[in-house]
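fold-stage: in
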Amino acid sequence: MTLKQISLSMPENLFKASKDYTKELGYRNLQEFILELVRKRVMIDNIERYERIEKDMKAGKNVRKLKQKEALNYLNSL
């Protein structure tokens, strides 16, 4: 896994509150805490998106019916 470095600016009061919260929850540092927040957000958004897609598909909303050959081509392209 390749790591990328970013720079993050935030208001001082939020920075201080985040540092305190990080210590309270037992994170080693603020970076670890922020990574966990981003990881959770990405996972939650993906789960919610997949649930919406599944719900729409079950309701027949935004669903395009494919012929067998089209479906195989689509699946092979994934």
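fold-stage: in (second)
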Amino acid sequence: MKKDPGSVAFHTLGCKLNFAETSTIARKFENVGYEKRPFDEEADLYVINTCSVTENADKEFRKIVNRAKRRSPHAKIAVIGCYAQLKPELIAATSKVDLVLGMKEKFNLLDHLHTNNDDQEPVVIGNTEVDQLHGCIPSYSLGDRTRSFLKIQDGCDYPCTYCTIPLARGKSRSIDPEILLKQAREIGSQGVKEIVLTGVNVGDYRWDTQYQLLELLKQLDQVDSIQRIRISSIEPNLLTDDIVEFVARSNSILPHFHIPLQSGSDTILRLMKRRYVRELFASRVNKVREHFPEAGIGIDVIVGFPGETDAEFMETYEFLKATDFSYLHVFTYSERSDTEAISLPGSVDLPVRKERNRLLTQLSDEKNMAFTLAQLGKRQQVLFETWKNGILSGMTENYLRLHVKHSNSDLVNTIATTELVSLADQKLFGSMA
């Protein structure tokens, strides 16, 4: 009788792209007989897909390793992902892990599990130089009944001075559109209603000079089995008029745009080596609002970048205060080794960084409340994701979480016209129209 390979549990740190890749790797394990378990349960193998965007992601990784070892002292631990590519020797030296795989080999994890490890030292495999990363492994997430993350590209050609992602994932490269259309149909055949297009730099998707993101959106919009498509995040200089105008007349692409700003000061944007000035960013928001008055608009912003004076922070604050958005993702700058920013002068004291984060987080809360209140009395198509204690919860097209009191749990993974009625205890409530 063939031996049962055992049980495996996965934990993902970081972005939607990591979740898509973890899910794809997990399906490989299940296909050869592994029992997939939640990460908070005992397992024979724990796989941690890491992130390197912030210092907190590195710290969180070590906590996760320690929790897994306490739960199952004899389990093997494999580490993959961005942090594993950038700092494999550090992981092997300071963590209780068995296997560390760089970017080139993470999808081949199954093949490396039985690597000879008699000396009980962690094995580092696939520590490939980033310029040797070629091709783009197709990936998508399954497991959530309602939503799937579909990876359309990997890597980035932008030299932002604070960012480690190009160091970990290499140059921008995209997936064959025929593969993506096939995967979209596969996802739809599983009953999933919504696809989120993800990658490192989604707006840079290009299969050839004539086939870029707009052409992919047009074809995905024709996949009958997928009712909703979101673009996860897109650089302002790549969010073209043609894309905004196509989304406005599309069948399935939702009025939700997440656009990184990072700073409202042109001086800081130049230090960051971003590819736009704030006026271009403002024009992109205005273009979206021209076509989608009710669109959800999310913005990334970094506070405390080296050289950011009080005056330059206030430029960002006032610029955002005058911008019509629905939420912010506020990041406190953290020093990352091997980036250009780490050697820039004018380091901002940590308490100042935290205070700037607090101020922008407060502004985000105020803007989000105003945006939400402005939606009351309107009708939205809502994809319901969960039902608990008589409450359905789901997302509107413009990315508001809505709750509806309803006795029928069968409405999970259905889309229904819903009126937005009230706000109570920081929660938005509605009723079936």
